Amino acid sequence: MSQPPIYAPQTEFLTYQAQQSWFPGQQLDVEFNAIDASISAIEANLAGIQKDDGTLANGIVDFPQLSPDLQLELAGDEFTSLTVAQFKQTTGVQVWVTDPQFGADRTGALDSTTAIQSAINAAVALAATQGLATVFLPAGVYRISSTLVVTASNIFIRGEAPYAVQLQRYSDFGPAVQFSNASAQIQNVGIADIQIDDIPAIKNTAGFSTPTNSPYQVIFDGVDQAYIKNLNTVAGSGSLALKGVINAWIASASLINAGTSELTLGGVGLYVGVSANSHLPAAYSSVIYVTDLEMEGNSKIADGVRVDGCDGLWMTNVHVQGTTNADYRFSHSNSSPMANLFARNCMADICTGNGVLCDGSQIIKHSGFEGSINCANAGGANKAGFLMSGSGGANDFTLDALVTGWGGAGVSLTGSNISNFTIRPRSIVGNSNTGSFAGIDLSCTAIGIAITGGAVGGGSEMPNIHVGASVSRVTIAGVLASSSAGYGVVIDSGATNVAITGCDLSNNSLGAISDSSGTVNKRFVGNLGAADVFAKGVVSIADNGTISSLTNLILAAAFGASIALEINGISTAYVTGTSVQPATDNTFTLGASSFRWSELYSTIIQTGSIVSLSNLLLSAATGSVIGLGVNGVSTAYITNTALQPSANATFSLGTSSSQWTNTYSAAYYSGANQVVGARATGWTVATGTPSRATFTTSGVSLATLAGVVMALEQDLIAHGLIGT
After folding, report:
1. Which residues contact 254 (CB under 8 A, 6 or more apart)?
2. φ and ψ at 25, to 5 degrees?
């Protein structure tokens, strides 16, 4: 419908009063003139909200004028699970910065710092009585010249829509927005749908922010329950900091640090760590959730995400690139905990530093990184995809990632105090582009490392996997580690307890395994390109609680090879059912002794088959030495074994030795005293009943004595000392 007709009075009632004195003509004229004025004002207002065709004029209905139900529908996925009542509690009372009493300019032409801060102060006063207040910024550009500060609980700063509201800073004054109170912890605060631009940096003019004065655009310090959604920062030396924050949610944030020549190198994209405020329950941060975060450093940010003192961090769908030191950095030197830090479906992208860096002096516990660490061959020289170099180390850490395109090692553990570290290489290939680095380098001090599944190396890596001298308890299982420029696996001297099973180690230029670990417990079984090996050099089986028996062992070697077996530090040892079969004239060593064999039952040896040490025949020609050393063992059992040296050969068992004069008829000596001679013959076994009864010489009967003599005769014959 069109605009209503304009009302104008048609009659002057005062003329009738002259004809009839009792008639109130003057009063009626006053009354109708007042009605005329009101109707004219209504018509003017109606013309402001209604077009001539009857439809609503543009720009006269905004978000606060909508019903709560419609507000809830339009608020987006952030509030989809809330009821209307809950939504009212979440948004609370709204304070518009463009309200005439504040007068913020949303064209960007005038400085709006004072206006916005006044709106924040008004919201603080309202929140004190109504529980929650939102400082609302309609779409536009707002120029600020100093920090906007929130010092009270239950305050939210919110723009009209993502990317529709810009705070433009024009000087190096510190953070654009800060939630903090120097004397008390504040709760339930947040910022959403706001973009912060560092205009001097964008326009290449003086006054852009620096890491010294303005390390972050937004700071939450000493906050319990912080909410950040659709926060976008453009340029600047850093973006977002959580210091001493408990319970924070960051969603759909974009932290872009534009790469202009005027920006000072340094800063951090997202910082999660400790606060300097002494009044907080805990200085470190905890229970932080980050999802859908884009961080671009453009070669001007040192660390993309830096964690320094946090217990409980969950990052999902985070992409970081363009840093100069590390895309993700876990670095921490104070006494606060570093635990329960998890990154899932996260990506470390092109940068000149390391993809993921752990370099603190405090241990990282119960944590992990899962995702992609991909530099696309564009990174800095010698930088690793994943580097753990700090003295703090890690306990119970899992790396489950694709790592490729780095100048240095794909994964490099060079620090100390590392234990229970699991690497699940989806694919750690295509690294070592600026030197000779391993696909996985374990040059650390560690106890307990497992590498399971996936592919490692296969290109310029040398080797695919390196096990350092200070590593113990390493398991490599089901890994494709073939076709590299070096070895499949290199094990340094000093490494202990290494197991390699079910791996493809074929087609490596220098070989499958280079093992210098020496006398260690190890097992290489079922690997393509490498023979099954239980040890290199000497097999040393120590009483370490894990190995208690050695049975059915065959030690076999080809002509000219050496076989060695040591048994040390075991209180009880059983060596049974064992065959030692070196070829003719091979050297056999048991303990520290060695001897030459002149003949054997068979000289046909199957090299590589290892089964048992039983029915052992030690024989030597006249004048040769046979050594069987069983040292450091309190009880030893050697069964079914013939020791047959020729005349005058020396036989040693442990530390004692005796001279043999003949194999089957020789006397046996203890030192210089003969203890056993040749068998005495001519005896005939008595008949009757043997007896081993106790008797006294003064009263023994002839029958008892005869029975005892018969029993003694039987025992001597059984032992071979007398015979017929």
Report:
1. 231, 232, 233, 293, 294
2. -65, -45
User: Could you tell me where the beta strands, DSSP code E, fall in 554-696?
Assistant: 554-557, 562-568, 572-575, 579-582, 587-590, 593-596, 617-620, 625-628, 635-638, 642-645, 650-653, 656-659, 668-670, 673-676
549 confidence band (pLDDT: 50, 70, 90) = very low
Please name the helix (run of DSSP H) or strand (run of DSSP E) that holds residue 448, with its range, or none. Answer: strand 446-452
Only one residue has tokens 């050969």, namely 649
- Rounded distance between C-alpha atoms, residue 424 and residue 664, angstroms: 63
**Which residues 6+ apart lie within 8 Å of 155 measured at CB?**
120, 123, 124, 127, 133, 134, 135, 179, 189
How many angstroms separate the CA atoms of 414 and 444, rounded? 4
Cα separation of 39 and 33, whole Å? 10
Residue 540's alpha-carbon distances to 491, 496, 514, 524, 555, in angstroms, are 17, 11, 19, 15, 14
N- to C-terminal Cα separation, the chain: 143
653 contact partners, CB below 8 Å, separation of at least 6: 628, 629, 630
CA–CA dist 577, 205 (Å, integer): 88
Q: Cα separation of 534 and 521, whole Å?
A: 8
Please give the distance of CA 306 from its chain centroid, rounded to a whole number. 14
Which residue, chain included where needed, has tokens 């830090």? 341
What mean pLDDT comes out for the span 336-341? 90
Q: Are 144 and 174 in contact (CB under 8 A)?
A: no
Q: How far is Cα 224 from Cα 308, in angstroms, rounded to an integer?
A: 18
Gyration radius of the chain over CA positions: 45
Give the Cβ contact number of residue 607 at 10 Å: 11
Tell me the two tokens of residue 471.
């590593």
Q: Tokens at residue 417, please? A: 């105090």
Q: Are 269 and 300 in contact (CB under 8 A)?
A: no
Q: Coil, strand or helix: which one is 438?
A: coil
Q: Rounded to an integer, what is the distance from CA 499 to the centroid of its chain?
A: 22
Question: Which of 406, 409, 399 shows the shortest CA–CA distance to 441?
Answer: 409
Q: Tell me the three state secondary structure of residue 180.
A: strand
pLDDT digits over 655-692, tens only? 333 333 333 345 666 666 777 887 888 888 788 999 98
pTM: 0.66
- Beta strands in 455-505, from DSSP E residues, in sequence order: 455-456, 465-467, 471-477, 487-491, 496-501
Lowest-confidence segment of 76-90, 163-177, 637-651 by average pLDDT: 637-651
Cβ contact 52:43 at 8 Å? no
Contact 218, 178 (CB under 8 A): yes
Whether residue 446 contacts residue 472, with contact meaning beta carbons closer than 8 Å, is answered with yes
Place of tokens 């080797």: 463
Residues 6+ apart with CB under 8 A from 107: 140, 141
Burial class (CB in 10 A: 0-12, 13-18, 19+), 453: middle
- 489: helix, strand or coil: strand
DSSP 171: S
Per-residue pLDDT of 229-262, as tens digits, reads 999 988 777 889 999 999 999 998 888 764 444 4
| CATH class given for the domain over 92-342 | mainly beta
Looking at 331-393, which runs of residues are DSSP E strands?
A: 338-348, 354-358, 364-374, 386-388
Per-residue pLDDT, averaged over 124-130, amounts to 91
Alpha-carbon distance of 537 to 516, in angstroms, equals 9
Q: Which residues of 234-250 are buried (b: 16+ CB within 10 A; e: fewer)?
A: bbbbbbbbbbbbbbbbb
- Residue 132 DSSP SS3: coil
Q: Answer whether 471's CB lies under 8 Å from 449's CB.
A: yes
Q: What is the full DSSP assignment across 3-56?
A: PPPPP-----THHHHHH-TTS-HHHHHHHHHHHHHHHHHHHHHHHHHB-TTSSB
